[in-house]
Amino acid sequence: MFETILKVAMVIISVALIILCLLQSGKSDDIVNALTGQSSNLFAEQKERGVDLVMSRMTMILSIAFFVIAILLRMN
Q1: Which terminus in the chain has less CB density within 10 A, N or C?
Q2: What are the per-10-residue average pLDDT scores of the chain (76 residues)?
């Protein structure tokens, strides 16, 4: 029973992680600008705010939960 609950939670967390990663804004423009020599704010202090901050924290929390559940499933 406990293993079934963990498997369902793993699927739900996996889908949520995929959706969150796809919804986050891309940060590759800064890297491209730094490599090509264009003006960039790569090393400037830019804080995440609002929705970006919430999505970043949710991604971190869900990824930690994903690894914990993966370890628990492997132990059973």
Answers
A1: N
A2: 94 96 75 63 66 91 97 91
pTM confidence score: 0.71
The two tokens of residue 50 are 């609002």
The answer to whether residue 32 sits within a structural domain is no
- How far, in Å, CA of 57 to CA of 45, rounded? 18
Residue 2: inside a domain: yes
Helix (H, G, I), strand (E, B) or coil at 42: coil
Q: What gap in Å lies between CA 60 and CA 53, rounded to an integer?
A: 11
**Structural domain of residue 2, as residue ranges?**
1-23+51-76
The answer as to whether 44 is a domain residue is no
Question: Closest Cα to residue 5, out of 62, 68, 73, 75?
Answer: 73
DSSP structure class, residue 25: P
Residue 19 domain flag: yes
